[in-house]
From TrEMBL:
This is Putative glutamate--cysteine ligase 2. The keyword Cell membrane does not apply. Belongs to the glutamate--cysteine ligase type 2 family. YbdK subfamily. It comes from Crossiella cryophila. It catalyses: L-cysteine + L-glutamate + ATP = gamma-L-glutamyl-L-cysteine + ADP + phosphate + H(+). It is an enzyme of class 6 (ligase). InterPro entries: GCL_type2/YbdK_subfam, GCS2, Gln_synth/guanido_kin_cat_dom, YbdK. One of its GO terms (biological process) is modified amino acid biosynthetic process.
Amino acid sequence: MTLTVGVEEEFLLVDPASGRPIRAAGAVLGRATSLESGHLHTELMNTQVEAATGVCAGLAELGGQLTRARTCLDAAARAEGLLLLSTGTPVLDGAPPGLAEGERFAEIGLRYAGIAADFQVSGCHVHVGVPDRETAVAVMDHVRPWLPTLLALSGNSVFWAGRDTGYASWRTVCQSRFPGSGLPPRFGSAADYDAEVARLVDCGVLVDPEMTFWLLRPSPRYPTLEFRVADAVPTAADALLQAALSRALVHTGLSEVEADRPAPALGGQVAAAALWSAARYGMRGLAVHPIYEERLPATDLLTELLNWVRPALAELGDLELVRRLLELLCARGIGADRQRAAAAGGPDAVLDLLSAEVVRSDEPVLI
């Protein structure tokens, strides 16, 4: 079974002199060359840009597209005298960001007011192809316990307004202010999912059925299951690891559905605690097991995830690549660890690190 995969990455534009976000999305996208595969977009804030890969059959193809899109946007930003950064939150604050142009963005600004006004956060979203929406919802129920572990691996948003928040993913905290955020509930069918979304729209907390804040959902636009849990990660290799693990989770979830195994039931408060712990500590310290409702080292939970998806990784031909990607991550630390290590040299050192990691020339797994 071959599952397609694609990635959307959000980036921040900053002034190299002050290190503060700059409203320059239109200018940077105007300079960017077109991609053979994938698209470049505006994001919610005009201090951000997004790169979306095309639909990829394998990780080698995906890695190449991630690298090319990053290279393209980085060159366009530098031509505007700016830095392109892949970080979940800005290191330093600046003038209030403005919403990108468009009626829908304007409605989002009106609906969510102050929550949206400074929602200057960036994520790495992974789309995995599924046969249909019914299957997507069934698989989602099996996959959702592992979202905190994906978050812990991706934590890359330490700073807010120039201060260390103490969190690996402050972006997750910012996102939790929106209604209906976090791990999705357990749904029995696509009809149940649609009914819940429609109820939230009727209650006035969602702008439309295409807007949900859950960290995993059937895409409203594509025949995919969309993972929205990860912070914007420093390197293309980090993004590729998220894609590989997400695809393996879907593959394993499909096997569970086909075998008619019931999805695990999660207590809502413990699931929220698992997500909070992942955001707070990343891969350092203790995590919360969403199913067994106990504390354990985050590394043990990662090992459990890898054991669950190992057959899928082997069948997809991704096992060796994931091993190498994890070795890279262990050697470098997650993005939050890298940012904190650089912070000993001051904010400029963090900005230099993030700028250098957008496009690296020493990523052997991507060549």
